[in-house]
């Protein structure tokens, strides 16, 4: 039974008892005074009415008390809930990361929270009773504050960015919302301001802008900012009928430093180069790093190529002194391309592109020099673009051909293997050698498709030779260094081997020294995986790159191919003789096969045989030819 039901039962029992007692007492009292039964009955009836009135009064009193109690309970509950809500609001008020400030209707601060204390650096006591203008930074004018008050008056609130001052004097931005608070009758009582310190966001925005325009390594302007400055310089030059010039600077063989001494040293060198360039060029010049080892200088107010040439010469001279990096004395040279406005270009983009073409010319004519832009360079550049799009078409139309050059065993003179060399059967230009399109294919990424195609053709051809009884030990296929580092190479080679069914032991992959010396661990892993397929690996053009003997020892290669540049000097050039002899000795001591390419005369073959070189390849043995034209029987005698 519930408490209220129990109370009701108790009240009913009490009421019943009272009724009995009342009736008993009054009855006894009346019967002791009245003897006449009619009169007694009359008074008993009146007594009954009296009891009804007393009961009604009792019930009225009890009920009103009950209502009172009930009414009192509701208001107590409401008070309790209000207190709870206030406690929660106070906790939120104190825990929130936003600063909160409450003023009375006159603008005097009556309350602040903990976050405000943390953000502004003032204590509660220092702010309560004062006005919010104590935080004024001086950043905004009177008009600004007037607009805030107007908005508060008209709309009852305002929000926006406002700069305030902390106690330590620092000014900072905050995002603020102010609201006017009115009572039940609509009369203004308080203002509440809630704000967030947005200096961190602002700082990261500034940092983003800086990063977007500055090279993080050297702190120099990057390509984006440099192009913008070039545009401004051109606009200025156009207005004032003057000129400007652009020097594009690229370090020669920087990759060797990166590969051999590591990227840390490479980075430090780039920083030092940036500083040295800044040292040469003061105000009126913009020195930028465009990416990698490429820098650029914008020379404002310069319309004469000779002035730009003088500065380019100065750059080359300045680079000559050694750079001291991490106890290494490093020597680097640079190449410079020059383009001048308005002579060579009409806008910033052209100026940059033409300086780049001039740089290309400087590099290809022997490096460590400068070159001026000429119109004919654009023709070359356009030609390169044309070749790239033509090459894409050539792949689709199957205009590429694989030629095979014989490789002979020097001891027996017998033809024992072939090297697959790609050619392009161009519809109008005739047979184009790989030197004219492989570098372009490498730059445009088409090389992956070309190498994949040559690999597949060569493996199929080798299978056909095997089937027709031609006894060859290997077919060698060149793999571009661009492709060598990529994981797809392994998938490609294993798929081609499976598809063609060629015995992997008959396939040799030629990679250049630079491909296996750079990113050494990646190259090593790639070589291990390829070796696990059962094929052989050869290092092509050995001696032209930058090998570390220690690294060479770790590589799972079976053959070194001495570059034809050294063979060409045989037998007269003593340096070449010494190099070739050393490479052969090195290969033998490492248990590697050694193969000389570019043999054009019998004397060269003789000397190589004397030095105990294993294999020979060159025009003297046979030029690269289509598969059907190979002469299997040819075994030219090295000794007469
Ligand atoms: P490489 O792999 O060093 O090929 C040897 C080059 O020397 C070939 O030039 C060959 O024709 C040439 N050669 C052979 N014997 C003599 C000689 O006695 N005297 C002279 N002066 N040259 C000789 P080619 O075919 O023009 O190839 C040039 C380079 O193009 C190759 O050098 C190789 O690096 C690249 N290459 C050729 N085919 C491919 C290919 O399918 N894929 C890739 N990635 N590169 C290829
Ligand atoms: Mg080769
Ligand atoms: Mg070679």
TrEMBL record:
Predominant location category: membrane
Keywords carried by this UniProt record: c-di-GMP, Membrane, Transmembrane, Transmembrane helix
Keyword Membrane attached: yes
**InterPro entries from the entry?**
Biofilm_reg_signaling, EAL_dom, EAL_sf, GGDEF_dom, Nucleotide_cyclase, PAC, PAS, PAS-assoc_C
**Residues in domain GGDEF?**
242-375
Q: Name one GO molecular function term.
A: cyclic-guanylate-specific phosphodiesterase activity
Q: Which SMART domains match?
A: EAL, GGDEF, PAC, PAS
- Which residues does the UniProt record annotate as the domain PAC? 158-210
Top EC group:
hydrolase
Which locations, inside or outside the cell, does it occupy?
Answer: Cell inner membrane
Q: Which cofactor does it need?
A: Mg(2+)
Q: Where is the EAL domain?
A: 384-638
Q: Which residues cross the membrane?
A: 7-25, 45-62
Catalysed reaction equations from the record: 3',3'-c-di-GMP + H2O = 5'-phosphoguanylyl(3'->5')guanosine + H(+)
Q: What is this protein called?
A: cyclic-guanylate-specific phosphodiesterase
What's the source species for this entry?
Pseudomonas endophytica
């Amino acid at each position: 039974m519930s408490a209220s039901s129990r109370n009701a039962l108790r009240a009913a029992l009490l009421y019943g008892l009272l009724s009995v007692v009342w009736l008993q007492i009054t009855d006894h009292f009346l019967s002791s005074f009245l003897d006449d039964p009619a009169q007694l009955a009359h008074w008993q009836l009146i007594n009954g009415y009296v009891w009804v009135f007393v009961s009604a009064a009792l019930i009225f009193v009890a009920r009103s008390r009950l209502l009172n109690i009930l009414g009192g309970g509701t208001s107590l509950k409401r008070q309790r809930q209000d207190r709870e809500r206030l406690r929660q609001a106070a906790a939120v008020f104190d825990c929130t990361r936003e600063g909160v400030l409450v003023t009375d209707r006159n603008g005097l601060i009556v309350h602040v929270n903990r976050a405000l204390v943390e953000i502004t650096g003032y204590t509660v006591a220092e702010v309560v009773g004062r006005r919010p203008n104590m935080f004024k930074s001086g950043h905004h004018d009177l008009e600004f504050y007037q607009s805030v008050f107007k908005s508060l008056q008209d709309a009852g609130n305002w929000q926006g960015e406002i700069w305030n001052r902390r106690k330590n004097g620092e000014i900072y931005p905050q995002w603020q919302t102010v609201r006017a608070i009115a009572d039940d009758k609509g009369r203004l009582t308080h203002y509440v301001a809630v704000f967030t310190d947005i200096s961190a966001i602002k700082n990261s925005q500034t940092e983003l802008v800086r990063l977007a325009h500055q090279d993080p390594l050297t702190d120099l302007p990057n390509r984006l900012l440099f192009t913008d400055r070039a545009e401004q310089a051109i606009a200025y030059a156009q207005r004032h009928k003057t000129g400007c010039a652009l020097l594009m600077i690229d370090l020669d063989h920087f990759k060797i430093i990166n590969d051999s001494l590591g990227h840390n040293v490479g980075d430090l060198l780039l920083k030092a180069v940036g500083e040295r360039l800044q040292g040469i060029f003061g105000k009126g010049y913009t020195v930028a790093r465009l990416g990698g080892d490429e820098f650029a200088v914008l020379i404002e107010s310069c319309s004469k190529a000779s002035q730009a040439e003088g500065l380019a010469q100065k750059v080359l001279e300045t680079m000559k002194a050694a750079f001291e990096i991490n106890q290494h004395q490093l020597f680097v040279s640079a190449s410079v391309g020059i383009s001048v406005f308005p002579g060579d270009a009409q806008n910033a983009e052209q100026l940059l592109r033409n300086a780049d073409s001039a740089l290309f010319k400087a590099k290809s004519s022997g490096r460590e020099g400068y070159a001026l832009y000429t119109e004919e360079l654009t023709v070359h550049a356009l030609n390169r673009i044309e070749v790239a799009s033509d090459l894409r078409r050539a792949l689709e139309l199957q205009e590429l051909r694989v030629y095979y050059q014989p490789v002979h065993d020097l001891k027996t003179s017998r033809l024992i293997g072939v090297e697959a060399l790609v050619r392009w059967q161009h519809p109008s230009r005739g047979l184009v050698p790989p030197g004219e399109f492989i570098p372009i294919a490498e730059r445009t990424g088409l090389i992956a498709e070309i190498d994949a195609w040559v690999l597949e053709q060569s493996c199929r051809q080798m299978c056909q030779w095997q089937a027709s009884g031609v006894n060859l030990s290997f077919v060698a296929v060149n793999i571009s260094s661009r492709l060598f580092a990529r994981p797809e190479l392994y998938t490609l080679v294993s798929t081609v081997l499976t598809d063609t069914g060629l015995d992997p032991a008959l396939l040799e992959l030629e990679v250049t020294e630079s491909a296996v010396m750079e990113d050494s661990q990646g190259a090593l892993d790639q070589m291990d995986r390829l070796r696990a397929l059962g094929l052989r690996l050869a290092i092509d053009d050995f001696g032209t790159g930058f090998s570390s003997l220690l690294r060479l020892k770790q590589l799972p290669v079976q053959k070194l191919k001495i570059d034809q540049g050294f063979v060409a000097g045989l037998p007269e050039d003593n340096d070449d003789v010494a190099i070739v002899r050393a490479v052969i000795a090195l290969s033998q001591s490492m248990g590697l096969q050694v193969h000389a390419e570019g043999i054009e005369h019998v004397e060269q073959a003789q000397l190589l045989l004397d030095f105990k070189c294993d294999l020979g390849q060159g025009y003297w043995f046979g030029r690269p030819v289509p598969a059907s034209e190979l002469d299997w029987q040819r075994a030219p005698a090295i000794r007469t």
